Automatic annotation (TrEMBL):
GO terms for molecular function: RNA binding; rRNA (guanine-N2-)-methyltransferase activity; rRNA (guanine-N7-)-methyltransferase activity. It comes from the Bacteria. Residues 45-149 form the THUMP domain. This is Putative N6-adenine-specific DNA methylase. PANTHER family: RIBOSOMAL RNA LARGE SUBUNIT METHYLTRANSFERASE K/L, RIBOSOMAL RNA LARGE SUBUNIT METHYLTRANSFERASE K_L. It comes from Cognatiyoonia koreensis. Keywords: Methyltransferase, RNA-binding, Transferase. InterPro entries: RlmKL-like_Mtase, RlmKL-like_Mtase_CS, RlmL_1st, SAM-dependent_MTases_sf, THUMP_dom.
Length: 368
């Protein structure tokens, strides 16, 4: 069988990091493109990618591509299409459309014709709440059919039921940890941890816990799914013990409690200590220097500025005073805020869109 074209979607700006992760996972030929990573492979590679990749948000597979200029032609091609190689008879799927610079561009007519063909050929009915979505993109008169094999976005691991005020997505947190050189072999401290995303991801990486271990995926509903082979894939990267410990603290008591509950659901609460205190009371943990990863409050109204500058000043003072030898990764929206910490930022800052603003990840080398 010919390999399939597979697309791993990720946060813009982090494509290179995901490419490195995909290659580490053995997805050969993985190559970064705008918005994600592409590679060619078979269904088991799709199951592996969904189950093990920490930085992907979705895994899409292309199941068809043809030129189309008229609705009748679309219907004829859809009637001839081998849907049964992908979809189970009598199942339900959702449809998602985009069209650009094409003669066939009436979404409701496209939807009607495709739904008719799916029903007539394989008995599939269209239901927006179905676990599987067929994505139809018609661009320059070329129709591309892909299936979203993930279902819920992959940052939803199934453990973070408590979410703080501005939670970081797990996939983004994992990519930022990787960008800061974290590979599961050093301590990680987050002194403004909110719902605990950084310490929990770091602890899971240290333990080699698969991010998909507690959730289901859309591919399990497809005709191509082989439960035995997927069960074997789940076994081939076993969890390991670690002597490392991880630390999260926050001045918000509710956040600290919720982060602890998230860690317990993820099965890493025994290697993370969450504490309730402000940044100025942060103590350096015993042991070799590691990584401080922090995402303080940022942006917002002008009135907040003075407070924010004081907060970033306190963060810088604490880290400069007590964390010699540690590296720091800081996520914030304004370079001015990073500057007031007086930490020795490297030049290779990474700026990316996040939650409607431009956000920057700044890093230091080991602090003097
Ligand atoms: C953007 S949120 C962090 C979100 C977190 N990364 C997550 O995934 O949930 C910023 C956090 O900083 C905390 N914070 C604000 N001022 C603080 C201070 N002076 N000391 C400690 N934590 C503080 C807030 O309570 C909030 O939880």
């Amino acid at each position: 069988m010919k390999p399939l074209n597979i697309f791993l979607a990720t946060a813009p700006g982090f494509e290179d990091m995901l490419e490195a992760e995909a290659r580490d996972l053995g997805l050969t030929g993985a190559s970064a493109v705008a918005g994600g990573v592409t590679f060619a492979g078979h269904w088991p590679a799709i199951w592996r990618a969904n189950y093990y990749l920490r930085g992907a948000t979705r895994v899409l597979v292309q199941i068809g591509k043809f030129r189309v200029f008229h609705l009748d032609e679309l219907e004829r091609l859809a009637m001839e299409f081998p849907w049964d190689t992908t979809f189970k008879p009598d199942s339900e799927i959702g449809l998602d459309f985009t069209t650009k610079s094409s003669k066939v561009n009436n979404i409701s007519a496209i939807s009607q014709r495709l739904a008719k063909a799916l029903r007539a050929t394989v008995g599939v009915s269209v239901d927006e709440k179905a676990p599987v979505t067929l994505r139809v993109r018609i661009d320059n008169n070329v129709c591309m059919l892909s299936v979203d094999t993930s279902g819920d976005p992959l940052h939803i691991r199934g453990h973070k039921q408590f979410v703080g005020k501005a939670p970081m997505r797990e996939s983004l947190a994992a990519l930022m940890l990787r960008k800061c050189g974290y590979d599961g072999s050093e301590l990680v401290v987050d002194p403004m941890c909110g719902s605990g995303t950084f310490p929990i991801e770091a602890a899971e990486i240290a333990r080699n816990l698969a991010p998909g271990r507690s959730r289901d995926f859309a591919f399990q509903h497809l005709a191509t799914f082989q439960p035995d082979r997927f069960a074997a894939i789940k076994e081939d990267r076993p969890a390991r013990d670690t002597d490392l410990h991880f630390y999260g603290s926050d001045r918000d008591a509710g956040g600290v409690k919720g982060a602890g509950e998230n860690a317990a659901r993820a099965g890493v609460d025994d290697i993370i200590t969450f504490a309730h205190h402000a940044i100025s009371d942060l103590q350096r943990p015993a042991g070799k220097p590691g990584l401080v990863m922090v995402n303080p409050p940022y942006g917002g109204r002008i009135g907040n500025k003075k407070q924010l500058f004081a907060l970033y000043g306190a963060l810088g003072k604490t880290l400069r005073g007590g964390f010699s030898g540690w590296r720091v990764g800081l996520v914030t929206s304004e370079s001015g805020l990073a500057k007031v910490t007086e930490l020795p930022w490297q030049k290779n800052r990474l700026t990316f869109p996040h939650g409607g603003m431009r956000v920057t990840l700044s890093q230091t080398g080991p602090l003097p």
